[in-house]
Design a protein that fits this description.
TIM Barrel; about 35% helix; single chain
């Protein structure tokens, strides 16, 4: 079982958890400056819209570990979910899969994210999150399966409509991409959902009775309270000036 102070358990318990983005090449002093602005629960790194280098991810995660911060990593493409295990071997604790619409993608992500007998992730990787002091294969696999955080990004009306079926056991958060969702709403002007908030309310209703939470890209702290009032508990923000 996850310990009560782990990121996964805090998310499932409905605690307010805020993540902050940081460039992959951030130095320790730069990360310290970012983290000094608020009480953050994790760092987010993006490869979908930014350059990505595996060695830099290992170095970034090492620095984040020294600062006591878990790292969430957004993979480059929905169809790259088969590479989730490889990315996790480089040190992130959380994975975000963009543009998820189909249950087949969810199934592949779950398989690649969790170790047997939950999933089919391959064993290996000296840079893995939490591997220190857990050299026993079964011990670490069990620990990971109870601590790793897997997120799916809702960016289309199809995903919003099908969210309850996408939110399978093993998924921790449904995250939001408001810009791409706006593109899809503009392409379907007759759809009953015509705002990001309409979509958000619909998915929150679908998630009732589960421990899966919404992780929302609000950008700045002044937008938090509005979405807290709607039922959002996890946020992703840009660094404060």
């Amino acid at each position: 079982m996850a310990d009560k102070d782990s990121l996964k358990e805090r998310i499932h318990a409905g605690e307010l958890v805020v993540g902050v983005s940081a460039p992959l090449d951030s130095t320790k002093s730069q990360l310290e400056a970012i983290l000094s602005k608020d009480t953050y629960g994790f760092l987010t790194v993006d490869s979908q819209h930014r350059p990505f280098n595996e060695e830099k991810l290992v170095a970034f995660r090492s620095t984040a570990r020294d600062l006591g911060m878990p790292v969430q990593f957004r993979i480059k493409n929905t169809r790259h979910d088969y590479l989730i295990g490889n990315i996790l071997d480089l040190g992130p604790m959380a994975i975000e899969v963009p543009l998820v619409e189909d249950e087949s993608i969810v199934d592949e992500a779950l398989s690649a994210f969790y170790y047997p007998q939950v999933g089919h992730r391959s064993w290996g990787g000296a840079a893995r999150h939490g591997i220190g002091g857990r050299d026993n294969r079964l011990e670490y696999a069990d620990w990971w399966n109870n601590h790793g955080v897997l997120c799916l990004q809702m960016e289309t009306l199809a995903a919003v409509t099908n969210a309850r079926h996408l939110a399978k056991p093993g998924i921790d958060c449904l995250t939001w991409g408001p810009a791409d969702l706006a593109f899809d709403m503009e392409a379907h002007p007759q759809h009953p959902f015509q705002t990001v908030d309409d979509c958000l309310r619909h998915v929150l209703t679908q998630l009732e009775g589960t421990s899966i939470k919404i992780s929302f890209r609000n950008g700045t702290p002044d937008q938090r309270q509005k979405y807290i009032n709607m039922g959002v508990t996890v946020f992703m923000e840009r660094p404060q000036a």
